[in-house]
Amino acid sequence: MKQIKAFVHRNRVSDLIHALEAAGFQRLSLFDVKDLLRALSSREQQYSVELGDKVINEVQMELFCEDSEVAKAVEIFRQVGRTGHTDAGWIYVSTLKQSIPINDTP
């Protein structure tokens, strides 16, 4: 099993969710994060006093899938996550050692 983390601009999240769901992916989590990616517009960027730099609010999308589905998931992130800028985000793929369901029976 693999864990895919994709850091994407907020305006691509809705389309990515729909594309991943249409392709049958279900184990998806979303996290709001701050990043130093290039903003798509000045409205997207803000100054962070804590970091002492300009940042943008983006989304970390985390997807868990079988090894055989990684190429399909990565391609969806690459195609649908595009913004028209070189630095549209990043995708990381990690091996997951084990997954254990939480259920009612011990």
How much of the polypeptide forms β-strand, as a percent range? Answer: 35-45%
**What about the largest sheet?**
5 strands, antiparallel
The overall pLDDT, averaged over residues, is: 85
Fraction of helical residues: 10-25%
Q: What's the tally of helices?
A: 2
Order of helices and strands: EHEEEHE
Number of strands: 5
Shape: globular
Q: What would you say this structure looks like, in words?
A:
- By secondary structure, the chain is α+β, with helices and mostly antiparallel strands.
- The chain contains two helices and five strands.
- Strands 1, 2, 3, 4 and 5 form a five-stranded antiparallel β-sheet that branches.
- It is globular, with a radius of gyration of 16 Å.
- The two termini are 23 Å apart.
Fold blueprint:
Blueprint: E1 2-9, H1 13-22, E2 28-35, E3 45-48, E4 53-65, H2 70-80, E5 89-95
Antiparallel strand pairs: 1-4, 1-5, 2-4, 3-4
Helix pairs in contact: 1-2
Descriptors:
5 strands, 5-stranded antiparallel β-sheet, 2 helices, 106 residues, alpha+beta
Give a short summary of the structure:
The chain is an alpha+beta fold and about 110 residues long. Helix content is about 20%, strand content about 40%.
